[in-house]
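Inverse folding, one chain.
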């Protein structure tokens, strides 16, 4: 490897790693609510640390493109201000030869970013989601305090007395659908407590409808009063276990995501062969569109590493006698365009064609403008 390449790569990667660590620390603060919520599920210190570390692969695909952009701009602006760029050009090195090692490293980091977003981030997201679901099922009091999850499970709970999440609840009301008919079961308890193995209740009342379909004048209710109740936590948890967690596309590695899309395509062929409901056909098509949109999203955020590196190189060089920060304004505008288009495409994932345009058109715009700027700079024309 030429000495110039080693020097440029060393300077670039040093700034890149510093920026990456800084952005990970900053982005982790945006996950504090998620980490705090996980801590309230009764997890121990090492489990909380494990959960926090599993947030990093989920943040890396965002932090890497931004870090590559900032490190490229900082390196080339410093080389411009210290006249290192002028010295390289005076030694006979073209602008392309100076930027080649930086752009090659950008391509390599883009490939690494694609592996992270397609394999590591998806696996991390899946494992943390499964862990949270397992913790909620271990202690039903944690689930009873989460009204959103109770609503997803088709149940309702409210605590009117004193309570502590995961340990005890006073004056609690629980309503849940009866699995055998269209009625509702009601549980009223003065006190519920949970320890690592058992679930305890005091002064409970259980109201259960009896065959409401055969009683035209009204429901027949069975009321059962219990002074105390002791049961294993796993047995009580089964009462509330209605599986609502689904495997989303962002939980799947690339191979599994592709397999899911192929399965949907086979189901579409089978549905058309049997002339089944059009609603089912539309749902399958939307699922396929979401699957391809997820693949495009991963490709887009991976390509962004190279695109942002090229943009930083094009707008970070200053060949004028007087320094100017106009290139930074262009960079902010183009980066904002990409971010807006990226999140717009995420919201329109059901429309595969529109989402693909929003994911990739900003890359075309950024690369075209960057190459135009580099052409002007190679001819000695200062940026407008």
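Residues assigned per position:
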């Amino acid at each position: 490897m030429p000495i110039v390449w080693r020097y440029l790569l060393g300077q670039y990667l040093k700034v890149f790693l510093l920026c990456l660590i800084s952005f990970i620390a900053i982005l982790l603060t945006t996950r504090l609510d998620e980490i705090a919520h996980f801590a309230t599920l009764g997890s121990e210190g090492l489990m909380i640390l494990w959960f926090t570390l599993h947030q990093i692969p989920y943040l890396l695909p965002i932090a890497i493109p931004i870090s590559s952009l900032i490190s490229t701009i900082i390196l080339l602006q410093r080389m411009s201000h210290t006249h290192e760029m002028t010295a390289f050009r005076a030694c006979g090195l073209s602008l392309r030869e100076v930027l080649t090692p930086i752009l090659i490293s950008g391509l390599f980091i883009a490939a690494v970013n694609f592996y992270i977003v397609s394999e590591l981030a998806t696996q991390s997201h899946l494992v943390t989601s499964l862990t949270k679901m397992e913790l909620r099922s271990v202690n039903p009091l944690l689930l009873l305090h989460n009204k959103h999850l109770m609503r997803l499970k088709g149940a309702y709970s409210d605590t009117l007395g004193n309570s502590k999440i995961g340990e005890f609840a006073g004056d609690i009301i629980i309503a849940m659908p009866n699995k055998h008919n269209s009625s509702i079961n009601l549980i009223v308890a003065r006190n519920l407590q949970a320890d690592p193995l058992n679930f305890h209740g005091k002064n409970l009342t259980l109201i259960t409808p009896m065959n409401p379909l055969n009683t035209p004048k009204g429901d027949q209710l069975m009321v059962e009063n219990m002074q105390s109740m002791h049961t294993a936590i796993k047995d009580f948890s089964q009462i509330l276990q209605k599986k609502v967690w689904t495997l989303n596309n962002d939980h799947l590695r690339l191979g599994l995501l592709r397999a899911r899309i192929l399965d949907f395509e086979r189901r579409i062929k089978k549905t058309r062969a049997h002339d089944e409901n059009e609603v089912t056909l539309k749902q399958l098509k939307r699922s396929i569109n979401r699957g391809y949109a997820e693949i495009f999203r991963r490709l887009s955020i991976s390509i962004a590493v190279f695109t942002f590196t090229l943009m930083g190189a094009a707008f970070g060089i200053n060949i004028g006698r007087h320094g100017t920060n106009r290139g930074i304004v262009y960079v902010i505008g183009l980066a904002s365009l990409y971010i807006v288009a990226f999140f717009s495409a995420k919201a329109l994932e059901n429309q595969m064609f529109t989402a693909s345009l929003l994911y990739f058109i900003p890359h075309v715009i950024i690369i075209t403008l960057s190459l135009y700027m580099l052409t002007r700079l190679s001819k000695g024309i200062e940026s407008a």
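Residues 57 and 341 are 23 Å apart (CA to CA). Residues 3-137+286-379 form one domain.
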